[in-house]
């Protein structure tokens, strides 16, 4: 209680409404801030993913170019001119085929001496290939490789080679060379955000080709602080010290020693603008919420006082008229209080009636239970048999009372009464055939007919048709009224077949009294019982008025 008082001290409704407004506004403000943080994190994650994908897309473009060059080398390597050693024809044919491209072919022997170069006329004196390191690495590995970028002796430009080793002589290797600036035409920043750059990095960490604001020239060493971190096949690199407010994505060109990289600034302006808007808007929201809560509090306080005055007058026993306020719900409360003041006297009368009815029904039930126990006491030969008989009959009576209570003593359908009492014998339920048009029984009829049904079923399970699997019971009811008789009659039939042979008992017990005398008396009718050898036949002819609820 002290903790509740600590958090909720006595205060006016205005104070609580203002506190509620603040309590609502602040979590909303905090939640929006959390969403912005999440949004910023998602934007960064999306940017990283897209950056890595853009680097991969660029690597695929360069890989396609290198693969095309490798394919060209393989085709040229198997040309007849080269196989026959006719280098002049090979030079002429190759130079003609590649005239429209920016590619040039070089043939070298095992020492690296150029035998022909399509950049020069055939027969022009040539020296060794300029990049002997790359040539020797290819000859050692025996596979096609792309060299690092280097300054070509013949062209004087930054170039790169793709070399195919051969086992034939005199041509030990074929080389396709291309100027780095021509490869740079494939490197584009189209589709990237403003301020982003892209580049191809060779195995030694030099720029092969680049584009974008970074303006890196071929042969320029790429930042050595970054290269050691680019170890996996693709990914992103971010370091505020090396690349402040920037992001770099990279991808290894599959099958080659080169990498592609793209990098650029991370957009911050939109996020900062959103944060400023959030802070200003949040403060304004709290102020508006407080002012609105104060205005509402004044109106609600007046309304509550009017309703409290009505309640005080009603408590003094007056019939009150509803007050008119500006709050719809308060008006509904005022109308409800007014109606309650009118209904109070009627409720008191209803309570007196209910108490009288409860006393009446309780007396009837006690009288019935008392009579039942007297009868059973006369016929029982031991306390245990008396207890079992009483418990069994009370169980049937309780089922009827529970059923009536669930319907507020307003009557129950006949079919439901039958089902409820036969539920006590679930193992025999499928042996009973029930038929008849359903109707609603009066409360007294529910009890009396329930006692008779319970007694019939109990007797059948112990001694009759329901005591054996092949036994069958037919329970039906139908209207048997005659036109010349003013009272409508209903006939109930309980017929057993297929059970053990039946003999009439030597004396009448409590069960016989219930299904015969009590049933006939309760329904102002007649009961016929025939102990036929093939099974018991019980017929109740009763006045409809004693059974059917109006």
From TrEMBL:
This entry's Enzyme Commission designation comes to 2.7.13.3
Q: Which residue windows are transmembrane per the record?
A: 16-39, 277-297
Its keywords, alphabetically, are: ATP-binding, Kinase, Membrane, Nucleotide-binding, Phosphoprotein, Transferase, Transmembrane, Transmembrane helix
Q: Which domain of life is it from?
A: Bacteria
GO MF terms on file? Answer: ATP binding; protein histidine kinase activity
Which reaction is catalysed here? ATP + protein L-histidine = ADP + protein N-phospho-L-histidine
Q: Where is the Signal transduction histidine kinase HWE region domain?
A: 357-438
**PANTHER family given in the database record:** HISTIDINE KINASE (PTHR41523:SF7), TWO-COMPONENT SYSTEM SENSOR PROTEIN (PTHR41523)
Quote the protein name from its UniProt record: histidine kinase
Q: What is the lineage of its organism?
A: Bacteria, Pseudomonadati, Pseudomonadota, Alphaproteobacteria, Hyphomicrobiales
């Amino acid at each position: 209680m002290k903790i509740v008082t600590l958090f909720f001290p006595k205060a006016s409704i205005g104070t609580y409404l203002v506190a509620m407004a603040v309590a609502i506004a602040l979590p909303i403000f905090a939640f929006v801030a959390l969403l912005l943080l999440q949004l910023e994190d998602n934007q960064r994650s999306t940017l990283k993913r897209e950056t890595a994908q853009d680097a991969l897309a660029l690597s695929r473009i360069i890989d396609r170019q290198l693969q095309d060059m490798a394919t060209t080398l393989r085709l040229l390597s198997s040309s007849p001119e080269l196989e026959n050693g006719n280098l002049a024809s090979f030079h002429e044919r190759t130079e003609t085929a590649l005239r429209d491209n920016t590619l040039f072919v070089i043939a070298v022997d095992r020492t690296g001496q150029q035998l022909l170069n399509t950049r020069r006329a055939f027969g022009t004196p040539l020296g060794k290939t300029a990049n002997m390191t790359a040539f020797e690495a290819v000859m050692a590995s025996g596979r096609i490789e792309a060299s690092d970028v280097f300054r070509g002796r013949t062209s004087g430009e930054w170039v790169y080679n793709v070399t195919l080793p051969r086992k034939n002589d005199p041509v030990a290797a074929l080389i396709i060379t291309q100027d780095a600036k021509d490869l740079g035409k494939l490197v584009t920043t189209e589709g990237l955000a403003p301020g982003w750059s892209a580049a191809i990095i060779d195995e030694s960490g030099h720029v092969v080709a680049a584009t974008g604001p970074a303006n890196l020239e071929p042969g320029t060493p790429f930042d050595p602080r970054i290269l050691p971190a680019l170890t996996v096949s693709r990914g992103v690199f971010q370091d505020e010290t090396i690349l402040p407010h920037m992001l770099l994505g990279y991808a290894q060109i599959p099958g080659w020693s080169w990498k592609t990289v793209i990098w650029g600034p991370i957009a911050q302006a939109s996020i900062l603008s959103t944060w400023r808007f959030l802070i200003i808007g949040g403060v304004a929201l709290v102020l508006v919420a407080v002012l609105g809560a104060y205005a509402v509090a004044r109106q609600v306080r007046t309304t509550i006082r009017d309703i409290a005055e009505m309640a005080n007058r009603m408590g003094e026993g007056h019939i009150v008229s509803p007050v008119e306020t500006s709050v719809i719900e308060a008006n509904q409360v005022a109308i409800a209080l007014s109606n309650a003041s009118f209904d109070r006297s009627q409720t008191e009368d209803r309570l007196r009636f209910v108490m009288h009815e409860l006393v009446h029904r309780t007396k009837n039930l006690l009288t019935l239970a008392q009579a039942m126990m007297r009868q059973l006491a006369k016929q029982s030969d031991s306390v245990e048999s008396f207890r079992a008989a009483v418990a069994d009959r009370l169980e049937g009576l309780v089922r009827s009372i529970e059923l009536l209570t669930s319907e507020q003593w307003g009557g129950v359908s006949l079919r439901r009464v039958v089902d409820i009492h036969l539920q006590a014998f679930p193992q025999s339920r499928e042996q009973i055939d029930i038929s008849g048009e359903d109707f609603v029984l009066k409360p007294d009829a529910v009890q009396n007919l329930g006692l008779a049904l319970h007694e019939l079923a109990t007797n059948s399970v112990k001694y009759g048709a329901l005591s054996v699997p092949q036994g069958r019971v037919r329970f039906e009811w139908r209207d048997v009224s005659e036109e010349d008789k003013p009272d409508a009659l209903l006939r109930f039939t309980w017929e057993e077949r297929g059970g053990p042979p039946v003999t009439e008992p030597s004396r009448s017990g409590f069960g016989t009294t219930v299904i015969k005398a009590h049933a006939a008396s309760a329904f102002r009718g007649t009961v016929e019982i025939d102990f036929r050898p093939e099974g018991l036949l019980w017929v109740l002819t009763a006045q409809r008025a004693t059974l059917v609820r109006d």
